[in-house]
Amino acid sequence: MKYTTDADKTNDIPLKFTFNPKLGIDNPALVISDDTETDVPLQLCRLKREQGQGFGFHLQRQDGIQGHRVGRVEPWSAAERSGLRKGHQVLEVNGEYVHHKEHAQVVRQIQESGLQLFLIVLQSEDYERTVSKNLDVKSVVSAYHGGICTQPRLCHITREPGFDLGLAITPIEGIKSSFHVNVVSEGPAERAGVRSGDRLVWINGTMVSTLTHSALNKIVKKCRDHLTVLVIDRQSEQQFIHRNIPILPCMAGSHNLPYRPKTLRLAQGPHGYGFLLRQEKLPPGRIAHMLREVDPCSPAERAGMEDGDLLLSVNGEPIEMAEHEDIVSKVRQSGQQVILTCISLSGKEFYEKIALSPLLFYEEDILENKENRKQNQHSGPPCPRLCVLNKEASGFGFSLGCVQNEPGTFISQVTAGSGAERAGLCEGDVVVQVNGHSVEKEYLKEVVRQIMCGGSSVKMLVMDRSGYNAGRQSALPNNPKIQSNKASETVHSSFV
Fold this sequence. Notes:
This protein is an alpha+beta fold.
C-alpha cells in the first residue's frame, strides 16, 4: 500500500528499508509500506479426535461480554494435546471468524465439525491487551493469515438436459491428484456456485487428493443426476497450504445443499404434543429416532411435523448418539414447550452419502430470530414480501434451492452486502411469485428461467418459511395482502 502524505508527517509512517547492492549500504532504497506483521501472539490449535469421543474442552461465555473463552481442558484430551489451555479466547473456528457470533452457534459449529477441528486462539492477557489498545480483533486475525482468505464453497450441482453438469475437471500438470475446474456460462455448475479456475478439493464425500484422474471420472459418471463438490479459489488454497491446514467441508462458507433440517416449536396441548417418538433400526443396521403417528390438528402437526421425520436434536442439543430413554427424558423435562430439529429420511440419506452431518451448516436459530423480528414489526396474519432486485456486476446476490425431485423453491443463500440482502431476501424464504407469475408449484429449472427472463431486474414475492407453512395450514388465499419493502425500493435507485 502506498501512502500520500505531507513531508512533516513522515515520522508517523511505518518504514522499511530494502538494501540495494548497486547503490551501497549508505544509500538504501526507501520503501514506505504497511507492516502486515502483527505482534499479537495468535496461536493455531489443531485438534483431532477419535470416533465417539469429544475434543475435551469447555467453551464459556459471559453475559454482556463478546467472545468465547475456553474453560476446563480435560487431561490427555485432543484439546490438551493441541496446546489449547484454559483462558484462551477462541477467535476462529475452521477458518471462520466467530468472535462476534452467538455462543450457541459456535458450540454447535464445533460439535458438528467432524473428527478434526482448527482453532485460532489468543491468551486471555494478550486478548485484554489487544482490546485495551482499541485494535480490531478481526483485522488482527486477517493479518495473521497474511491477508484475506476466502472460505471454500460446498456446491450441489443438478444435471440438466443440454448442459449436463456444466463442469469440466482437468488435472493440474506436475501436481499429483490436483484438479481445477472450468464451468459453462450460466450452466448448472456456475449457478450452484462453482467458478472457472476453482480448485477441486472434495467430491461426494471423498477428498480428491486420494483419487487418480480415472477414479475421479468414475465418480462423476456414477453420480447420475446430482453431484456435490467442495471448491476454493487458487489464492485461498495457497494460503491454506502455507498455514498447513487441510481444506475440509466443515470450513465451507456457503452451500446450496438440497435438504435442510427444520425446527419445530411445540407448545403442549390438552392431550400432549400429539406424536410418538420411536427408536427404529434402519438399513444397514443403524439406529434412528423417528417421529411417528402424528395426530391430526395436534401441536406437532401444526408445527409442521410429518410422519417419518428423523429427530436430530432436542432444544438445540444433538441426540443422534443418545439413548432412547434419555431423549424421552429431555422432552419431558422441557415442560410445556419443546424445540425439536428434524429432517426427512431422504434428507438424512443424502447427508450420509456425502459423509456430512445434516446439522453442520444448520443455522435455523438465525432465521427464527429474523422471523420473530418481522412478526414483532408487522402484527396480524403472515404477509408475503415484495422484493425488487437489480442485477449488479456480481449478479443478484442469492442462490435458489429445492427439495430433490419436488416442485417449489426457496432462497438457499444470500450474499452479505448484496442487492438481494438489501432488498430484504432472507435465507429460507419460500419463493411464491417471480415477476407476477406464480411459481409455488414450479420446479427449480422453470423458476430460474423466469428470473433470467426478467433481464437486469426482477420482482420476487417471498414468505418466510414458518409464515408460509402457517398460511398453508390456514388455507391462505392465493392473492394475500402484499407487504412492500419500501427500504429496498430506496436502495434500488442507488444501484442501477
